[in-house]
């Protein structure tokens, strides 16, 4: 991961902002890194001296040593004049205090609070809505749950983001030997899917990212991101050569907040769920919360137990314990035992780099999801749909076309959009359609646009006109 | 234990029961019947009560769980004795018979040793019905409602007396709870008196039958019970009110406060309704034959199913002439009983629901030995302690029924008579099958059997544990 650090400042067209990040843990430091790369001036407030030192050694940010809930350290960090404030310490309560203080007392125009407990989030929103400015809470765990739930119905995908109320999916699939997509020219995709939108929005080949043209070719070993109509999913899966799954049961390892939330959402959809958790008290609590799901006490890496509880016939195995190394091991074990698809919660970048080669279908990183959402918020404010970031290299945005927008004034070909922009789908009058070069956007359309991260700023400028 | 204050509470109870005797006394005066039994008993009870209350005045009003069991156990025994006095003093019944009739009244059983109700004074018939009414909601609960003397300790008594495994308070304060429950009870009573009068029953008969219905008792003013009136309307009205009385009174409270949704979603109510419907259908179908009409058969089936499952024990037909399957259904209903927190007896629906769920969880655990499978009720996990109590109760219930049947059988009665007599007494139902059947009475039984059955009635009304704990050695150890 990592675009080369651009020390010259923000790309053209973007106002460099002063950002204060309270809390220099995993999320805080990743966020600081990301913001600094985007050209903003970042000050990190952190209590632990050693953490601070490593931050200032590795990142081009200013640091303030002190507690996040102390007004003094916030002042020293420049909260009075900053444009955006992030509260991402490990404590919900501290984040709440910092964020509300920033919004109410120091009149920071944009405040982001990382809150884990849904109840806290709700109370935060109640207060924040009464304050001037734009304030949001981000929930890493909820983001992970949403990601897992969008991945589950798309077997074989490493990443899925829903757009246009879930009608369009941006889904990344590895192209395996034997897939019908291997060797396919992108200009031929239209022949395969004449009517419905199925389009390639990005290809990763080795470590290089391509935003494709018609004369590019899909190769075996590529990771291909498709924009596809949900209704076309079975066809795409068939062409990918995905194994048909027979089992229905989903195993969830770890009665963490994420694990229980996933189990809860699945059981409410009628899916059979088994939750595996080693700790007895956590088991009891989960069993009390869940209605139909079965809670089994035992280690998620206990081979005999996993076999006994039906892993060999499971439709999916989702590892969400707090120990992310256990998640990797458990997922690999489940894969070996025959689970059709495996997902693991992994935050550690070093670990997640390895996983793709090991055969786990998808890794979910709550940290990266949070940072991605926070970065989006900085750039665009509250957007209608969450924009997908394909490992930070390609951005996908959903935009509503307003009357009088420049985008409606000529055909897509003549619009002079930033180079490399793709428009995989438009939602018009309730129907999904793939625009061609000679189509026009109309007021009231909802369009999905994809562009490389470096040029995202230019697209923002066009959309903002 | 706080014996001084326990006695004080008991003394006030005596006064209250004595005060209730004023009702039949007034009726006796009005009708010109003999007032002696009520005057003597009432005066003696109130006098003794006031005397003891004066002598035991104390500032130490703490009640521990033990006091709860002692007071409730003793209260029911003492009330039964007082209740027996009017029959005894007037010379209507002998000592054992009088006690049996009083216990059967207060425990809302409704088994009777009176062979011909026409031979009894109307004031005495009213007293018989009144004992049902007092015992239905609970004499202790009544005391809590009108006397502020119990304070916090009242909860100990409340728990020991209210039917069902969990005693729900509908309001934060116990006194308010007791008043609301009694208000609902009085409201139901008034409604039924009006409804029965409209159906053509005399005021006296309506009042007596209402007392017996809302308390799920079963004493009637006629030898032929409700069937004697030969009125379809009366039977339907009584069926409806028996159902109301067999429902948890907390649900009535919710209905009155407009929380209909909560009531409809109540798991225990759904189970109870299912039992009534299924049993009614089975009985109707087994009795179907030439000459059957839907209304009459359905009415008869519903009346008796409801009468038995709510443990009221009214009779309109001779169900001993029914096919064996229908009789077996009634026998099973005797055991199941009404809802928790109702005036009905039996094992109670809630315990059955919990036991079935516990059983299901056990089977599930056999298949998945590592699974954590809690038993849930109303969205919350049921504690292991409560489940153990439920299973313990079922075991104790079965044991008490077995011992009771054995005593009856030892006196030479047949198996069906012995079993049904024990079950009907323990479940506070009323009639049994065989020699204690629909149109029989209990007068012909030997004294020992009558005393045993009286004991079973008390055991059943106080949900076994409250009495059983008094017989444990540990209870009396310091």
User: What is the total tally of β strands of chain A?
Assistant: 22
What would the principal axes of the Cα set say about the shape of chain B? globular
Order of helices and strands of chain B: HHHHHHHHHHHHHHHHHEEEHHHHH
Question: Termini distance of chain A?
Answer: 32 Å
Strand order in space, largest sheet of chain A: 3-2-1-4-5-6
Query: Got a strand count of chain B?
Result: 3
The end-to-end distance of chain B, rounded to whole angstroms, is: 9 Å
Beta-strand content estimate of chain B: under 5%
**Helicity level of chain A:** 25-40%
Helix content of chain B: 55-70%
Rg over CA atoms of chain B: 22 Å
Chain pair forming the biggest interface: A-B, 14 and 9 residues
Mean pLDDT, all residues of chain A:
83
Uncertain segments of chain B: none
Short overview:
The complex is a heterodimer of chains A (465) and B (478). With 465 residues, chain A is an alpha/beta fold.
Report on the architecture of this protein.
The complex is a heterodimer of chains A (465) and B (478). Chain A contains 15 helices and 22 strands. Chain A is an alpha/beta fold and 465 residues long. Chain B contains 22 helices and three strands. A two-stranded antiparallel ribbon of chain B has the order 2-3. In chain B, a hairpin with a 2-residue loop joins β2 (376-377) and β3. At the A-B interface, α10 and β14 of A face β1 and β3 of B. β14 of chain A pairs antiparallel with β1 (371-372) of chain B, so a sheet runs across the interface.
SSE layout and pairings?
The complex is a heterodimer of chains A (465) and B (478).
Chain A: E1 18-22, H1 26-37, E2 41-46, H2 49-58, E3 62-65, H3 71-76, E4 84-87, H4 92-104, E5 110-114, H5 118-128, E6 134-138, H6 140-151, E7 159-163, E8 168-174, H7 189-192, E9 198-205, E10 208-210, E11 223-229, H8 233-240, E12 250-253, H9 257-268, E13 273-277, H10 280-289, E14 294-297, H11 303-308, E15 316-319, H12 324-337, E16 342-345, H13 349-358, E17 362-364, H14 366-380, E18 388-390, E19 394-400, E20 422-428, E21 431-433, E22 446-452, H15 456-464
Parallel strand pairs in A: 1-2, 1-4, 2-3, 4-5, 5-6, 12-13, 12-15, 13-14, 15-16, 16-17
Antiparallel strand pairs in A: 7-8, 8-11, 9-10, 9-11, 18-19, 19-22, 20-21, 20-22
Chain B: H1 3-20, H2 22-31, H3 36-55, H4 65-89, H5 95-106, H6 122-137, H7 139-146, H8 154-161, H9 174-198, H10 203-214, H11 232-246, H12 249-256, H13 260-264, H14 267-287, H15 294-309, H16 324-336, H17 349-367, E1 371-372, E2 376-377, E3 380-381, H18 384-410, H19 415-426, H20 447-461, H21 465-468, H22 473-476
Antiparallel strand pairs in B: 2-3
Helix pairs in contact in B: 1-3, 1-4, 2-6, 3-4, 4-5, 4-8, 5-6, 5-20, 6-10, 7-9, 9-10, 9-11, 9-12, 11-15, 14-15, 14-16, 15-16, 17-18, 18-19, 18-20, 19-20
């Amino acid at each position: 991961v990592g675009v080369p650090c651009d020390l010259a400042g923000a790309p053209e067209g973007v106002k460099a902002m002063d950002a204060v990040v309270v809390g220099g843990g995993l999320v805080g430091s990743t966020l600081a890194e990301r913001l600094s790369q985007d050209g903003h001036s970042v000050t990190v407030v952190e209590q632990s001296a050693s953490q601070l030192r490593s931050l200032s050694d590795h990142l081009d940010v200013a640091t303030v040593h002190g507690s996040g809930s102390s007004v003094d350290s916030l002042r020293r960090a420049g909260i009075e004049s900053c444009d955006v404030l992030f509260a991402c310490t490990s404590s919900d309560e501290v984040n709440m205090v910092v964020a509300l203080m920033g919004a109410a007392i120091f009149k920071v125009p944009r405040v982001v609070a990382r809150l884990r407990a849904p109840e806290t989030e709700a109370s935060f929103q109640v207060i924040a809505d009464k304050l001037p400015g734009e304030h949001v809470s981000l929930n890493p765990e909820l983001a992970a749950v949403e990601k897992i739930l969008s991945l589950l119905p798309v077997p074989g995908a490493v990443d899925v983001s829903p757009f246009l109320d879930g009608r369009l999916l941006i889904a990344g699939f590895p192209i395996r030997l034997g897939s019908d997509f291997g060797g396919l020219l992108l200009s031929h995709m239209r022949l395969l899917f004449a009517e419905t939108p199925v389009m390639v929005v990005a290809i990763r080949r080795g470590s290089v990212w391509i935003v494709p043209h018609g004369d590019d070719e899909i190769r075996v070993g590529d990771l291909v991101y498709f924009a596809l109509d949900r209704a076309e999913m079975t066809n795409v899966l068939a062409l990918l050569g995905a194994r048909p799954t027979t089992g229905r049961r989903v195993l969830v390892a770890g009665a963490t907040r994420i694990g229980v939330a996933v189990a809860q959402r699945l059981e409410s959809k009628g899916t059979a769920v088994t939750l595996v958790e080693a700790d007895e008290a956590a088991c009891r609590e989960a069993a009390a919360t869940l209605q139909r799901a079965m809670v089994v006490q035992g280690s998620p890496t206990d081979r005999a137990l996993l076999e006994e509880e039906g892993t060999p016939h499971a439709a999916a195995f989702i590892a969400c314990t707090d120990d992310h190394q256990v998640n990797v091991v458990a997922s690999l074990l489940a894969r070996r035992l025959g689970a059709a698809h495996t997902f693991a919660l992994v935050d550690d970048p070093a670990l997640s780099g390895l996983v793709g080669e090991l055969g786990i279908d998808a890794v979910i990183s709550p940290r990266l999801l949070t940072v991605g959402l926070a970065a989006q918020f900085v750039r665009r404010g509250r957007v209608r749909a969450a924009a997908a970031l394909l490992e930070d290299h390609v951005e996908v945005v959903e935009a509503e076309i307003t009357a009088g927008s420049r985008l409606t004034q000529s055909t897509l070909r003549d619009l002079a959009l930033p180079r490399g922009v793709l428009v995989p789908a438009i939602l018009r009058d309730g129907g999904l359609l793939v625009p061609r070069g000679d189509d026009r956007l109309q007021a009231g359309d909802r369009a999905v646009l994809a562009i490389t991260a470096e040029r995202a700023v230019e697209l923002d400028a066009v959309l903002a006109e | 234990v706080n014996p001084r204050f326990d006695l004080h509470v008991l003394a006030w109870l005596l006064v209250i029961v004595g005060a209730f005797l004023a009702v039949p006394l007034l009726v006796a005066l009005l009708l010109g019947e003999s007032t002696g039994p009520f005057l003597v008993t009432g005066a003696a009870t109130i006098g003794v009560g006031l005397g003891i209350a004066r002598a035991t005045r104390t500032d130490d009003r703490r009640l521990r769980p033990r006091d709860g069991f002692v007071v409730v156990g003793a209260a029911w025994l003492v009330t039964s004795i007082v209740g027996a006095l009017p029959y005894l003093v007037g010379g209507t019944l002998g000592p054992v018979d009088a006690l049996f009739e009083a216990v059967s009244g207060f425990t809302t059983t409704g088994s009777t040793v009176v062979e011909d109700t026409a031979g009894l004074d109307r004031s005495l018939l009213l007293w018989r019905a009144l004992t049902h009414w007092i015992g239905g909601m609970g004499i202790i609960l009544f005391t809590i409602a009108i006397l502020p003397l119990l304070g916090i300790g009242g909860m100990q008594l409340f728990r020991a007396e209210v039917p069902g495994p969990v005693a729900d308070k509908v309001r934060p304060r116990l006194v308010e709870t007791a008043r609301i429950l009694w208000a609902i009870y009085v409201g139901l009573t008034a409604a039924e008196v009006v409804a029965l009068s409209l159906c053509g029953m005399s005021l006296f008969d309506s009042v007596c039958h209402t007392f017996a219905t809302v308390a799920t008792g079963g004493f009637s003013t006629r030898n032929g019970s409700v069937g004697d009136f030969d009125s379809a309307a009366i039977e339907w009205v009584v069926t409806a009110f028996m159902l109301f009385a067999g429902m948890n009174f907390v649900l009535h409270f919710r209905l009155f406060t407009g929380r209909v949704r909560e009531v409809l979603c109540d798991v225990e109510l759904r189970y109870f309704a299912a039992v009534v419907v299924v049993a009614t259908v089975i009985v109707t179908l087994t009795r179907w034959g030439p000459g059957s009409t839907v209304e009459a058969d359905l009415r008869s089936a519903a009346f008796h199913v409801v009468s038995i499952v709510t443990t009221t024990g009214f009779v309109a037909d001779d169900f001993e002439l029914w096919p064996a399957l229908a009789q077996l259904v009634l026998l099973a209903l005797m055991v199941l009983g009404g809802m928790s927190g109702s005036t009905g007896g039996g094992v109670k629906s809630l315990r059955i629901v919990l036991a079935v769920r516990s059983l299901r969880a056990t089977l599930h655990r056999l298949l998945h030995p590592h699974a954590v499978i809690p038993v849930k009720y109303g969205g919350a996990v049921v504690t292991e302690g409560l489940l153990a109590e439920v299973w313990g109760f079922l075991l104790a219930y079965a044991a008490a029924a077995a011992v009771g049947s054995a005593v009856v059988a030892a006196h030479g009665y047949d198996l069906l008579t012995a079993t049904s007599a024990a079950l009907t007494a323990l479940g506070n139902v009323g009639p049994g099958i065989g020699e204690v059947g629909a149109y029989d009475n209990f007068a012909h039984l030997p004294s020992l059997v009558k005393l045993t059955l009286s004991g079973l009635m008390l055991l059943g009304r106080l949900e076994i544990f409250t009495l059983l704990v008094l017989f444990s050695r540990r209870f009396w150890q310091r």
